[in-house]
Design a protein that fits this description.
The protein has 132 residues and is an alpha+beta fold. It is built from two helices and seven strands, in the order E-E-E-E-H-E-E-E-H. The chain has helices at 46-58, 120-129, and strands at 4-14, 17-22, 33-34, 37-39, 67-77, 80-89, 104-108.
Length: 132
């Protein structure tokens, strides 16, 4: 049976664009583009995990009341089944800064994304954002 991985992704929205980051070298799918976030730790909620991950990855502070649940996405990767809670964020503190030497890109989510490679879950989320 495939491993189930509970994770969270933050869709950070600013001026009609969303933040995409490249996966750091040394991690699975390194170089692929994704929304920032990560795995939930034991007994950690999606919101709490996202707040922690955003501080670790892009040095921003997000308050729980600024996290709005959007959707959940499930995708089967070769290494396991990822259950991804997707949370919208429009307000945060600090300037975004890539702390893991990853690339960052502000993508106009109403247009096709030309970044490659995109993680399959990232592509699904981008398609769902068109309904906003």
């Amino acid at each position: 049976m495939a491993e189930i991985i509970n994770a969270v992704a933050g869709v950070i929205i600013k001026d009609g664009k969303v933040l995409l980051t490249s996966r750091p070298s040394g991690k699975i799918y390194s170089g692929s583009w994704e929304f920032p976030g990560g795995k939930l730790e034991f007994k950690e909620s999606g919101v709490k995990a996202l707040i922690r991950e955003l501080k670790e990855e892009v040095d921003i502070i997000v308050l729980p009341e600024n996290c709005k649940k959007f959707i959940s996405v499930v995708h089967e990767y070769p290494h396991g089944i990822v259950k991804l809670d997707v949370i919208l964020i429009e307000y945060w503190l600090n300037n975004i800064y890539p702390l893991e030497n990853q690339e960052i890109y502000w993508h106009d989510f109403k247009t096709p994304c030309k970044l490659e490679p995109l993680l399959p879950t990232t592509e699904k989320i981008l398609n769902l954002l068109l309904s906003l």
